Amino acid sequence: MSVIGVLALQGDFQEHKEVLESLGVEAREVRLPQDLEGLDGMIIPGGESTTIGRLMVEYGLREPLRHMAGEGFPIWGTCAGMILMAKDIGHDQLLLGCMDLVVERNAFGRQVDSFETELEVPQLEAVSPKEKGKKIHAVFIRAPLITSVGKGVEVLARLPEKNAPRHAEDHNIVAARQGNLLATAFHPELTGDHRFHHYFLDIVHQAKR
Amino acid sequence: MEKSTWKVKKGLAQMLKGGVIMDVVTPEQAKIAEEAGAVAVMALERVPADIRAQGGVARMADPERILQIMEAVSIPVMAKCRIGHFVEAQILEALGADYIDESEVLTPADEEHHVEKHQFRVPFVCGCRNLGEALRRIGEGAAMIRTKGEAGTGDVVEAVRHARAVLGGIKKLQATPKEELMHAAKEMGAPYELVKEVAEDGRLPVVNFAAGGIATPADAALMMQLGMDGVFVGSGIFKSEDPAKRARAVVMATTHYNNPDILAEVSKGLGEPMRGRQVSQIPPEELLAGRGW
Prior knowledge:
heterodimer; A: alpha/beta; seven-stranded mixed beta sheet; B: 13 helices
C-alpha cells in the first residue's frame, strides 16, 4: 500500500487526509523532515502560502523536498500548494520552486471574488473511463492562476473563457503537470469528486515501478 | 461560475486552519504579522486590551485604515463590525474585506438581533460561548465560528471554558437518541436541522477557532490540543514586549502543538507577555463575552 504524506504545517490538510483514507491509502501528516521517510508521494494542501513557506524553511523541510522533487518524487500542490511549487510568482516569497510555472497569487481578487465552476480535464479519462467527458466541479478560493508554463509542462486544465480574470486574457491555466509534479489552482479535496486524487495516485504508482 | 456560495465562504476558513489570525491596528503591524507567518490579520482601531482600558463606544475601524492594511499585506484581511450593525457590515463588504467578524469586542448596536449574514457576499465569523450559540450564529449565516473567551485580558480561562462547552456539547449530541434531538434543540435554542447535522457528523459544519485571552505559545497549543482548528490572538501579540518574536513563536506553537520539545524551544526568551487581567477579578458588567445571545 502507498503512503502519502500531507504537509500539515497549516491549511486544509485534514480534508486531503480524509479523501486519501477513503480511497484506501495511508496518509501521514508531515511537519518535520523525519516524517518524510518512506513516503511514496506528497500533497501540499490549500492554506496561506506565506505561512506554509515560512514554516517549511524554518523546520528544514524545503531542501529535502526540493531534492526529492528533483529525483522524481511525486508531489501535488493545491492552491497555496501550487504557489509553493512554482519557480516564479513575480515577487519575493519563500517557495519550494520545483515546477516551471509562473503563478500569480490572488489572481481573481479578494474573497468576494472566490467562485465555483466546471472544468474540462480530458486527462482524467485515463483514471475514470466511465466518466469520460464529465466536467470536474472546481472550487477557487482567493485562488492563484498559472500565467505561463515552461517546456516540459503539460497543461491539464484551463478556465472557460468567461471565467478568466479580465487583466489576464491569455492566462487561464489552472492545472498542470511536469513529470511527477502536479499543480491545481483549485481544491479537489473539497468537492467529493476524487478523480484528481486518483490521477495523483496513478502518478505515484507509476513512479514506484 | 458562481460566486459567494456557502462552499467558498466556509472554504476560506478551511484554508486558515492550523493557523494564527492576529489583531493589528496599523499597516506596519500587519506586515510584522504576515512576516511572522499569520494566516490572516484582523484590522481594527484599538486592540481589545485598549478598548477595555480606555472605555467609550467601540465601533468599526476607519475604512481608510482598513484599506491601508489591505494594501500592506497579501494574506486575507478581516475586520470587525458591531453585533447587529448590518450597515457597518455593508461598508466592510464594499471595502473588500475578506471576512467580517461580528464581534462582542465592539459595543453592540442591537441587544437582541445579530446580522442576517446569508444575504452578504462576504463571509462572517462570530463568537460563541457554547454549542447552542454557535449553531444560532451558523443558522444566521456565519461561515466560521470562534470561542468568545474574554478578549483583552490575556487570561485563557474563558477560551478554555467556551471550547470545552462547544466540544463537550457536540459529544453529548452524538450520544443523544434521535427522538430526543428536538428537545435538545429547544433547550439549546438552536436550529433543529443544525442540531441533527452535528449529532450525525460529530463536528460543527464550519471551522471553529479559539479566541479571547490567548497570550503565549503554550496558550495557543493548549487550545489546539483541546481540539480547536486554529487561534485568534488579539492583544497578546502587540501588547507584549517583543511582538515579532512572540508572533513567530505563537505560529510555531500552533503548527507543532503536539510536540512539547518544540513548544519548549519556541517559548524561550520571548520577553514580557502582555500584563493581562485576571478574568475572575473583573466585575461582571465589564465582561465582553455576555454581549450577544
